[in-house]
Automatic annotation (TrEMBL):
Protein name, entry field: ATP-dependent helicase
Keywords linked to the UniProt accession: Membrane, Transmembrane, Transmembrane helix
NCBIfam families with a match to the protein in the record: cyt_ox_CcoM
Transmembrane region(s): 6-29
InterPro entries: Cyt_ox_CcoM-like
Length: 36
């Protein structure tokens, strides 16, 4: 059970990191298009 909780926590953290990085990338992409 401990392994399952650790695996789920790790997958959740990695998923949040991807969402956070994607949001920053999207914001930079939209901001760069507005300046052109």
């Amino acid at each position: 059970m401990f392994i399952d909780e650790v695996v789920l926590a790790g997958v959740g953290v990695v998923g949040l990191m991807f969402v956070f990085a994607g949001g920053i990338g999207y914001f930079i992409w939209k901001d760069s298009q507005n300046k052109k």
